Amino acid sequence: MQLEDFDYYLPEELIAQTPLEKRDSSKLLVLDRKTGSIEHKHFTDIIDYLNPGDTLVLNDTKVLPARLIGTKEETGAVIEVLLLKDIQDDTWEALTKPAKRVHVGTIVSFGDGLLKARCTEELDEGIRRFELIYDGILLEILEKLGTMPLPPYIHEKLEDQNRYQTVYAKNLGSSAAPTAGLHFTKELLSKIKNKGVNIAYVTLHVGLGTFRPVQVDNILDHKMHTEYYEMSKETADLLTKTRESGHEIIAVGTTSVRTLETIYNKYNCFKECSGNTDIFIYPGYEFKAIDHLITNFHLPKSTLVMLVSALAGRENILNAYKIAVENKYRFFSFGDSMFIK
What angle do CA 66, 214, 231 make, to 5 degrees? Predict the structure, then answer.
């Protein structure tokens, strides 16, 4: 399979730059993966596609305000550091720009020395490992000095930082939001619960893969970066019960899919666990853990377009994206939504 097989035309003006005033007022394109038929709805209509006894699975990761602008102590050069992964004991992997100016021993200072980062290791693709040096609580310092790591295609300033968090975000650790969940409000989740639909949570901390395009022609040569995930006993038991009772599992977002499929592939069941995953889902993959998916519209030639193509069929997805463009749907992180049923 070639990378070009997952390309599509997208006018730049359809890339959403800001979130809508109301989270759940986005459009919803409903794609039937068996027939390829399409319906045009609004996100609040999602409740009509969920049945009592089904389980909706949400990723409760919380985005760190992890983009930091600092200066190199030796020269005063401006360095941008995006914290990606907490290794241990205040050692972090970070995407660094310009990385060529940061070597082992380099110290980058943020906020007049409130936080310092000493480079301990040089890795590929602009990644560096840093030892963070500070007094106090790191999260409080990041909230003071850092900003949300918005994707590079968003050029507008985000006025309310919380709009890049889901309303149920809980476990800190992501470098990007699980954006399919941004459409939900607390009120809509209450209505879904009141209908008799179960709501379960998993955690997957979104990492570097979000910021990296696929750079190989043959997608089978692509290597996914690892991301940390976990599932509680409560969630595992609920999903097992859902399956045993003949009801369906609806994943919210590709991160939830990757978590559920990773666990089911590893254990052939749902169970309490945690670990790191580099699962790469592309056409030909046989889904074992999910029945339906709520997702956003993804970048051309991305691993996420490959994942939804694996679920719904590449031709169905490309046709749906073409129709979405014709109907002026908004694309990417702050864009509209799709339900693959």
Answer: 55
